[in-house]
Amino acid sequence: MADYRIETVRTGYRTWTARNDRGAEVSIGAADDADAQPSFTPVELLLAAMGGCGGMVIDRTARAVDHDDLRIVVKSVSGPEDDGRIGRIRVSYEFELPDNNPRAADVFARGVRLTHEKFCTVSRTVEHGAEVEAILPDGTVGFRAG
């Protein structure tokens, strides 16, 4: 498993830009701020990461099934009892299984299972949690959990 580094810089009030070392950028802002659009919210980026990771794993684990038209929809569901966290995440794999492959449903289901059980780092991290450290400007740990 590779290690990653993302730099997130403030570009205005409640607007940020995240950059990777390969030069890609994504805008981050509040959904209710018209001046921040178009952008993703932090939660939307988490959901997008789950969908993208799952899709890349499916490309490898379900190669025997033509899935060019696959669409992955990731939805968060939260209530007051979730105390500012996502309560549940639903990942829907949407496409029509090909008629010319009688094993397509089983192969695809195996690919989805392997995505969440073994290969999708993002999904597995969300499902199992990770240790989080917040390092302050003086190098001390300001917060630790996990």
UniProtKB/TrEMBL annotation:
This is OsmC protein. The lineage of its organism: Bacteria, Bacillati, Actinomycetota, Actinomycetes, Kitasatosporales. Pfam families: OsmC (PF02566).
